[in-house]
Amino acid sequence: MDIPPPAALRKIAREVHAMVNDPPEGIRMILGEDMSDIQAWIQGPEGTPYAGGYFRLRVQLNADFPNSPPKCFFVTKIFHPNVSKQGEVCVSTLKKDWKKTLGLKHILLVVKCLLIYPNPESALNEEAGRLLLERYDDYARHAVLMTGIHAKSAGKDAFPQPNCAGADTEEGYKYGDLPPPPANITRRTDGETMEATVATLTVKDTQKAGPERACQGDDHTSFYDACYHNPNETETGINGEPGRARASTLLFIVGCGMFILLTLLLELEYYL
């Protein structure tokens, strides 16, 4: 197995330690001795066919990391357009849009967002991609069935459960009870919007809800608002730079100002 440079391994070890002490919402690290082969549990997001499931993920680093991206594999079987039958994950962040500054937490959040917004246009599982586009109900039934068979038992103990009377727990969907299809599934498939989604998610993750807040009716909206929210409609884009909506508004205001100024100059010239 290829081993990353010592400096990269030390950085990864610090990130793993930080996420063990303060885990991102819906993600729990699995501690091991090999820092080049990292594993974690990802909780299936609510409102998706993967709700109620717990999926084991491997992040495999290479000798050129972080200059080249790691590979991600689902150890738990899953029916998803961007996950091959062998478990390999396909997402632009781990390919053409990779940046060596991206950390392990970012990678895990990208994979979890992929469960909410799959990309059928670059499917590794062609059957799942075709069904998602053409017959969503069949896609959801298959994904719910696979989740129920392979992802319901292992991993659940890694996540704290609400500890109060009358609190509902997320059991996921039954085979005949399907979640709605993702809205505008092709809207967030390019690298830039995925980056913006995860950037927003990372900020909001600091406001994640714990078990006690779940008892008070908090349904983890911090995570889902980030993934479902269109970053093009926000004022803050990637790395805190102005988003497209804000830039468009500024251009519109400048254009209107120039038009008014030109009109006044023409009127002034007419009277002179």
Automatic annotation (TrEMBL):
Alphabetized UniProt keyword annotations: ATP-binding, Membrane, Nucleotide-binding, Transferase, Transmembrane, Transmembrane helix, Ubl conjugation pathway
SUPFAM superfamilies assigned: UBC-like (SSF54495)
Family: Belongs to the ubiquitin-conjugating enzyme family.
PANTHER family for this protein: UBIQUITIN-CONJUGATING ENZYME E2
PROSITE patterns: UBC_1, UBC_2
Gene3D superfamilies referenced in this protein's UniProt entry, alphabetically: Ubiquitin Conjugating Enzyme (3.10.110.10)
Pfam families assigned: UQ_con
Domain named UBC core: residues: 7-152
Organism this protein belongs to: Linnemannia gamsii
Protein's UniProt name: UBC core domain-containing protein
Transmembrane segments: 247-266
